[in-house]
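Hi, here's the filled form for the chain we discussed.

Project: internal
Contact: R.S.
Residues: 268
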Amino acid sequence: MLGQTIGRRSFLKHVAGAAVATVGAPWFIPASAMGTAGNTPPSERITMASIGCGGMGTNNLRAFLAQPDVQVLAVCDVVTASDEYGHWYKQGWNGAWFGREPARKIVDNDYAQKAPSGSYKGCDAYVDFREIIARDDIDAVCITTPDHWHAIPAVMAAAAGKDIYCEKPLCLTVAEGRAMVEAARRYNRVFQTGTQRRSSEPYRFICELIRNGRIGKFQRVLVAIGPNNKQAPPANWQPMPVPEWLDYEMWLGPAPWAPYHKDRCLYT
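And the returned structure, exactly as it came back:
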């Protein structure tokens, strides 16, 4: 898998190279299978699944689709399809549909444009992430779920031998964070948290300046919180009917039960 020093891909690459050098490549093997003409051979591709296909999840999905060594095989979301996906809708993004079916269409359309046949139907869509975890043909997962649904999929994915990209915040409690770190270490998995500003070069440089006292002693820190993170039902809120396109029980998952209100969930 991805986290091993010498993985399946490296092994296959060396074996394939030796075989070609010995017997020569048959003329009918396509360039994509051999990794020539700018294509990544199937044996070298990282097969992925996207768990969580809202606004941020869809952005992450598109980013992985742009990687030539990645093959997206599945998507997962508790929303079938909706154009009222949280703050994206409030900001006037009418027509911007999110959920597992729009995500599946994005994947199929992307690969169809790249395929010689002009068609592709290879992406599966799930409402339950455990079906993705159970698949042996998926190497890594991208977790872009609500915060209370970060730890459980991450730990289960690590135990199943999958590498993980998980959005911020990493977890809700210290105990969850420790469980995630322990799982990644125990199963020797690659684990990356989507704290882009914490790991980008400009911010790392700023941290170096501060830690080395290059800009003097800090007196005050100002923190800004984005509007979607402050979103909540109004003070006089009333329970709302659960939309047909949402599996609300699955959305709640490990969180304490609460009646549905659109401003409580699906805000990103």
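Let me know if anything looks off before we file it.
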